[in-house]
Amino acid sequence: MSLKDQILSTSRTILKREGFGKLSMRKIAREIAVSATSIYLHFDNKDHLIHTLMEESIGELHREMRAALESGHGPAERVRLVAEVYVTFGLEHPQEYEVLFMVRPEEMPRYPKEKFRKARIGYEMLADEIHKGVEAAIFEKRDPVSAAYSLWAQLHGIVSVILNRRLDTRVDQNDFIKTSIDTIVDGLLIRDRIPAN
Amino acid sequence: MSLKDQILSTSRTILKREGFGKLSMRKIAREIAVSATSIYLHFDNKDHLIHTLMEESIGELHREMRAALESGHGPAERVRLVAEVYVTFGLEHPQEYEVLFMVRPEEMPRYPKEKFRKARIGYEMLADEIHKGVEAAIFEKRDPVSAAYSLWAQLHGIVSVILNRRLDTRVDQNDFIKTSIDTIVDGLLIRDRIPAN
DNA sequence: TTCGTAACTTAACAGTGTTAACTTGACTGA
DNA sequence: TCAGTCAAGTTAACACTGTTAAGTTACGAA
Q1: pTM
Q2: Which of A103, A174, B118, B137 shows its CA 20 to 30 Å from the CA of A120?
Q3: pLDDT for the residue B196
Q4: Of A106 and A60, the one with more pLDDT
């Protein structure tokens, strides 16, 4: 295994074991028994290294989302399944999720912003499915791109409330997830509103 | 003005000007022309200092939320108003918002977790209002605490997608906010579902 | 065999939070 | 008035951080 691969796999180990905040160049190097500066022969800087890890994780998430989309019958079930996959991924890979979606680009200024766009491919999938739902007269008519972002923002909200430990202990986590996804998917469906107020 | 107050106000200035990541004890001290260790005479550590700032900010947010709740007529309008206030606060105070809701307690291990609960008072307000809406047969019947968290998670999703710069440039930010809040508030209303699929 | 280069090293810089030990100045009790 | 106490500040230091510059070493080709 090349040193570059060792750096990546050791980084991932540390990331999972100790979290993003504890991942340092020196710690990675120490664990491989190599000097810290050697990492710079294979990666421009820490941001570059982290983004390389990110790209692998985002690939995995997108594969899982795609599989969920394909296994569901009809837009509503598909959106529900992909929502569940998304939330599950976030909770099962908290450290990766944090880097993927909870780190501000400003904190990684030296890495091309273009790369951040890869983290958005998932929304294209959602937008597609919402478009189909609208055409099938199952979803309320609205702009699919905007609706997909709105849907994603809500899913991200669920994950991040849990990961950031802002959920009250009185609230059961699984109930919370189920209730939230129910509300979110229901929100897409065509319905007769009862006039507010 | 006491040194303690100077530390707090200078911290806030740096926080707004340069962001959470650039706020350091030495920088605060340098700006007041005092030694870095003097800060430790007034605050146990950096976490303590940051939490003190947090408590002031959260007070402001809660005042604004309360005002919104009181100015609206009926549960639906009230929830919409408080949602708008929340999102606006997040976007107008990005640095404070980040510390309040986007920092993991694990990153501030030395400060009592109890203090994080203050950041939750807002949900009590939401839960109250949802309870009223359910009793008035305007909102779908569900557990108010869980529904309030779900609502808050969705609002947090909106704010954090924008602050984390994960919103596509094709999507207009204000449209996105409006669409999302529409969907979220509509999701609370009683409706006749058209069977999915 | 010499040259060039890739892959590594050590030493150093500037920054971080934090602690221990020291100084300074003002107020207090005898 | 003078010693004692104590709070509020100081400097020096430790153990970290990312990163760069310069030096070494080993190997493969001409």
Answers
A1: 0.85
A2: A174
A3: 47
A4: A60
